[in-house]
């Protein structure tokens, strides 16, 4: 009996120690998980940019993410993954572990891909969380000086005089340059032939040579060519005049209020990324946008910071996808 009692007491004590150990371990694990979330990041972060280095989105991303990395105390390593209209890089970001160590920095081209591709290696609206906006950059309508157009009104009049005779360039079907031109064309009520190129360099070369009648492109690569007189700027597709081109009217000012096209960009993460990390990234992006040196560098590119909450950016992105889909239908852009 004593032996049995001893065994029972020992068994109870052992059971108690076991439960205590388990509970202690659970508490410790909870503490570790919390500390891990609070301690993020502990290593470098990869930022996927789905286009080649040097494009408008890439330049903005590098300015902002360099500052965000400094604020976080960890480097943000840029990884350019071009191909298939940006969908290869976006697909890689969608498959990344949702732990805050992989982010996607994308632009209005994200919405464009949704309406120009029949199949995508990701779900545009379900696979990502829109974290924080970066900025918005106006596109500028340019022509070769040899064309003789001094105003957009003259260009529109010439296009209407010979319907379908004019052509316009883009950096590819669904590119910002394509969609901006389509919005302009539809608003102006003109018909013209779309000539897609492999990229902006090829398109600009043909415009300057006079073989292309008009072209929309982001203001930063256009600015030096405008200043050198290699192309003539006729309008900017933004709600207000661009500070870098104060003498160039907006599309609204030339009588086309529905022609504005917003080339925006911002940060996204895989949808299951922890909420506290999303909030931290949003906060650090907002701080970066307020940094004087960042604002100065963005201003030189013609980029105006976008100010909105994370929830507002999420709604902004979804609305842009819907608006782009509507534009594609009106312009007869088919998915390939």
Describe the structure.
With 336 residues, this protein is α/β, with parallel strands linked by helices. The chain has two domains: 45-136 and 263-331, Bordetella uptake gene, domain 1 (D-Maltodextrin-Binding Protein, domain 2), CATH 3.40.190.150; 139-236, 3-Layer(aba) Sandwich (D-Maltodextrin-Binding Protein, domain 2), CATH 3.40.190.10. 48% of the residues lie in helices and 18% in strands. It is built from eleven helices and eleven strands. It has helices spanning 2-39, 56-72, 87-95, 109-116, 152-161, 176-188, 200-208, 219-227, 275-290, 292-300, 310-331; strands spanning 45-49, 76-80, 102-107, 128-137, 139-143, 167-170, 193-196, 214-218, 232-236, 263-270, 304-305. It has a six-stranded mixed sheet, with helices on both faces. Strands 7-6-8-5-9 form a five-stranded mixed sheet. Helix 4 (109-116) packs across helix 11 (310-331) and helix 6 crosses helix 11 (310-331). It is globular and about 65 Å long.
What's the quick description here?
This protein is α/β, with parallel strands linked by helices and 336 residues long. Helices cover 48% and strands 18% of the residues. The protein has helices at 2-39, 56-72, 87-95, 109-116, 152-161, 176-188, 200-208, 219-227, 275-290, 292-300, 310-331, and strands spanning 45-49, 76-80, 102-107, 128-137, 139-143, 167-170, 193-196, 214-218, 232-236, 263-270, 304-305.
